[in-house]
Amino acid sequence: MSDTIKISATVRSDFGKGYARRIRMAGDIPAVIYGHGEEPKHVVLPGHATTLAARVPNAILDLDIEGESHLAMIKDIQRHAIRPELQHIDLLTVKRGERVEIEVPVHVEGEPAVGAVANQEETVLLVEADALKAPEALTVSIEGREAGAHVLASDVELPSGVTLVADAELLIVNVSEPEELDVPEPGEEGENAPEGDIVEASEESDQAGEAHDSDNSKH
């Protein structure tokens, strides 16, 4: 279940790409807080602490903004295309006891039956939960499942207080037989190769004979 992560934030006074770039160069992260009909609030978050917090799915931050506590959930993260850096974060204002819709990672555990393979079709599941009690992950077991078995969204066991929002028929895991590869029968390649060599040798012999006949006709 979610625990709040305390982080100090400062209000942004300037805007624009240049200012945001200077924030990142200083090791901090620009962010915006929105929700509950309030005007968006632009803040600056400490880079290291926020990066650690962002590793937790649907993390709840207890922000200290100019001495006032503000609860917010990480909703969207913009990452650098190459470097492992956070470029910008969107935060959703939440209140204690409030229920929110969130996407929770789905982890698959166990091994299917011998001769079967499992393919995970969905990696997250949309659910509704108390903002401060949201699960970090959901787990489904495929242990011993035979080819042809399916795990649907409705099959995923949800913690108490968490309800499914996604389509109940959404396919999460598909267990099937492994795909057969077209492998040449033993000897097929070997049988064809000599024939090609014989044809090429025959063509070369014919060409040589034609050249010899041509030389003789000149004499």
Automatic annotation (TrEMBL):
Domain named Large ribosomal subunit protein bL25 beta: residues: 100-178
UniProt xrefs under InterPro entries: Rbsml_bL25/Gln-tRNA_synth_N, Ribosomal_bL25/Gln-tRNA_synth, Ribosomal_bL25_b-dom, Ribosomal_bL25_C, Ribosomal_bL25_long, Ribosomal_L25_dom, Ribosomal_uL5_bac-type
Acidic residues composition-biased segments: 177-207
GO annotation, cellular component aspect: cytosolic large ribosomal subunit
Keyword check for Chaperone: no
Disordered: region residues: 176-219
Biased composition (Basic and acidic residues): 209-219
GO biological process assignments: translation
Keyword Ribonucleoprotein on entry: yes
Subunit text: Part of the 50S ribosomal subunit; part of the 5S rRNA/L5/L18/L25 subcomplex. Contacts the 5S rRNA. Binds to the 5S rRNA independently of L5 and L18.
The protein's name: Large ribosomal subunit protein bL25
UniProt gene name: rplY
